[in-house]
Amino acid sequence: MSLERAIRAKIAGKREPEKDKEAQEWIEAIIGSKFPGGVAYEDHLRDGQVFCQLINKLSPNAVPKINSSGGQFKMMENINNFQKALKDYGVPDIDVFQTVDLWEKKDIAQVTNTVFALGRAAYKHPEFKGPFLGPKPSDECKRDFSEEQLKAGQTIIGLQAGSNKGATQSGQNIGASRKILMGK
Known about the structure:
This protein has helices at 3-14, 17-31, 41-45, 49-58, 72-89, 99-103, 108-122, 147-154. The chain is mainly α and 184 residues long. Helix 2 (17-31) crosses helix 7 (108-122) and helix 4 runs parallel beside helix 5. The chain is flat and about 90 Å long.
């Protein structure tokens, strides 16, 4: 098998149809229209128009101009505008797919992961009332300990430090002991 085919097979293996379906249903709920029947998930998203509509629903006027015609460069511009709006909305840069992942269908699993990252970022915006996608990100739970509490913690030896309240395995023999024969 050639290296390119092996890489494509590995990338295709990362794809989960259930996650694609869940992401599609969330997008449909947000933008208020269904994907056309008989068209693959990635084919409908490929021109970037749906993604621009999605981010504009979450953050009004995030992408002011959505290109609906004008060739592949205009469609890829939609994708790039969506990616910029994602970062402005709070999606970490590491979660954003590359344009070729969608346009050339190189890694649709990463595109779906980006949709999930957008769903998580929506939790951080109180103006957005739902529906949400994916688990809610945890909030920071900062604790302030007094000096007295910190000093009390220094006297405790945890079990991870190697102590087990004086119990050891010395003197235990399990099974036959090793016999060393000298001079043979």
